[in-house]
Amino acid sequence: MTPEDYTAVRCGMNVAKYILEGSIDCGIGIECIQQVELEEALKKQGRNPNDAKMLRIDKLAELGCCCFCTILYIANDKFIAENPEKIKKFLKAVKRATDYMLASPKEAWAEYGNFKPAMQSELNTKKFSRCFAYFSDSLYNVHRDWRKVNNYGKRLEILPADYQPNYTNEFLSWPEPKEVSDPLKAQELMAQHQEECKTCGGYKRLVLTGI
Which pTM does this prediction carry? Predict the structure, then answer.
């Protein structure tokens, strides 16, 4: 397939909406967001929600990671140089909130809904539960994932050949977890885990041991 074989349409986060409207034939989305939207739309139509399929880019490209939707905390060089302690304290607060959210997801979601009531719909609650396994419990950037995505961007000619990722873990004060030795296996297990979450619901984490 070449660029002449298709028409690219900018959708933002409205991929599911555009598919349902018939504005596009397919789109790039996130399993725990747009796929959930399509599944729920199929249910309302009396159709099988499993008809909503997603071909994972990370699997297609054999990246062995799924960090395309990593949350980034961005600061300019001047602020970083002048406020290292503020950054450390901010990240400690994020870690504390993350620990609470992972330990008590229902309570954390309810508190968030109290702050932002518009998010407290059945659809958004299902999205949150499907996102639950993806949340990092350490907040550490995974070096392997950044290398893979960086090289993938260069292969697509989105990034220049000499581009270097400018992330850092230096402001995190807790132990860095060990990276998995078999990322492709971890990716496969995550896909299976998410299928179970889709079927059974609830808030479930994937425990990777021995890989």
Answer: 0.86
